Amino acid sequence: MMRETNQVQAAQDTGAAGTAAADGSFGIVQISDLHFQDSPGTRGFISHEPDEGLAAVLADAGQAIAGASLVVATGDLADTGEPGAYERMGAVLDTLPVPVYCLAGNHDRQDELQACLPRPNVHLESAVRVGNWLMLFLDSNAHGREADGDGTYRDRDDRVHAAAQPGLTPAEEARARGVLAATGAEHVFVWLHQPPLLRTAPDVDSYRGLAALVRDFPAIRAIGAGHLHGDLSGEFEGRPVYVCPSTYYSIDHTNGSLDGPGYRTYTLHPDGRVDTEVRTVPGGITEGMRRARLPRHLAELLAGRITGDEIEALSDAEFEERFGEPRAIRRS
Ligand SMILES: [Fe+2]
Ligand SMILES: [Fe+2]
């Protein structure tokens, strides 16, 4: 489904409070990788709950959200896709003063997400028009999906690892092409979960459809993503790619160390320019994460010495022998 509105119409549709500046620019706050669990509880090396990380971000971003036209949540909303995770985060996001547009990450489960998350102010739309911009939300989890005989898709059991790289199903690419061909918007911002950067997508075949899409539609100005839990940016097919920190815990990819919850703010201009900044929340949660040690399995994963699939295939005993520490255990 596609929605085409301007800001005034969006406000009427959803109760949004966002307004454009006199020059036609507007703001977006991006949150990502909430990793909510079925019930509250801490996990492994992280001493705060996902709910606490999101609350810290929303408190710090309150003014930016109030002045924005929309909030975008770019996937890994739930850690293992349980209904309770979507129910609890939906209740929180529904209280925000502007509409929230969500998309799925490799950790999400599509059926549970669709059944439990949407609220009057929390949407799973595939596109929305704001001013002379189109926000195009892509499901880039093709490698974690498989088609049934009747052509519908369902999650593979190994979706979390299988969809670690971005990919579009033929149906999703066709849907995106239809939206892009029909829109009257001058500029397009593409949102997806796994950023099309070498760090995430060393296998070029995995995002060939996305590359063709971006090449074929010059109105695409920029790409926003999550998945890497950090302040990163790069380029794909000549377009800037911006990666958002996680509201749960982030990684300082420069130093290979842990960091606190964060978010991205954007200003989109009517001439197609994009300004963006990352902010990490101040306070005890971030200080605690900066004092914590990056677990060895994550350090090796980031360094490319092991893949997520290889980590997953290890027994608990093999994991402990390889990394010198046990697998993360949930504490509720
Ligand atoms: Fe994530
Ligand atoms: Fe992810």
Helix share, percent: 25-40%
Shape annotation: globular
* Separation of the first and last Cα atoms: 38 Å
Ligands in the model, by name, code or SMILES, are: fe (ii) ion
> How many structural domains does the protein architecture include?
2
The helix count comes to 12
Nearest-integer average pLDDT? 88
Overall CATH architecture of the largest domain:
4-Layer Sandwich
Q: Indicate the proportion of strand residues.
A: 15-25%
CATH fold-level topology of the largest domain = Purple Acid Phosphatase, chain A, domain 2
Helix-strand topology string: HEEHHEHEHEEEEEHHEHEEEEEEEHHHHE
Structural class: alpha/beta
Rg, Cα atoms, Å: 19 Å
Number of strands: 18
Task: Provide a descriptive summary of the structure in words.
This protein is an alpha/beta fold. The chain is 29% helix and 23% strand. The strands form five sheets. It has a six-stranded mixed β-sheet, with no helix packed on it. A six-stranded mixed β-sheet has the order 6-7-10-11-13-12, covered by helices on one side. The protein is globular, with a radius of gyration of 19 Å. The N and C termini lie far apart (38 Å). Residues 33, 35, 76, 107, 227, 229, 246 line the site of one fe (ii) ion.
